[in-house]
Amino acid sequence: MPDPGFCLHTPAMSLPHRTIFRCPVFCCLAVAALLLPLPALCSSEALIAAAERGDTAAVRQMLDAGTAVNGRDDRGRNAVLAATQEGHVATARLLIERGADVNAKDSIHDSAFLLAGARGHTEIVRLALAAGANLASTNRYGGTALIPACHYGHVDTVRLLVKSGINLNHVNNLGWTALLEAIILGSGGPAHIEIVRLLIEHGANVNLGDRDGVRPLAHATQRGQDAIVRLLLRAGAR
To answer: What is the reported pTM?
Structure first.
């Protein structure tokens, strides 16, 4: 006689399988899984979204549940890069403590370390350095973390990076060093004056010119950056 719990047209199924699917405990567990909130789904996308909005509690919950800390989204970002993009220090700290890769690059060659330098997120730079940031890593313009920090006038970030062992004389794809970038793209104001002073103090080559051979002193003179000119001359610039 057919089992009254199943339709006559149901494909044949072994007794153990039918027993499992008719078990009340199994059914309750299946329904509960369907009702779990998004963070409990433990997907990389959910983790990255939580990191991007700075929801540190949700990030911790998902990591504790087993979500991979270095999963990527369709832009190639891991969660710590997403947190860095929005300047969420607490979230970035948690992710780095849990093993996030601060050197992992997305589809446009940003990493948490590189972007923190460019955005002036000094504390994230500090955390990244402690976690093994690759000082030689470069962005899509061929620049280290130091070069855009000099460009944008992030004094505290530059102050930290010049002590890290990073190459002060690295040349990017434009043919510019950090010193040249501070002069050519900088405002010549107090922030960029201090950055030039820091670079000189820590050993930047003041006579390393651009790809056309134009040196920092000539660029500063052309732009009327008198305070920077004086700094360069005292450092032996020609």
So the answer is: 0.83
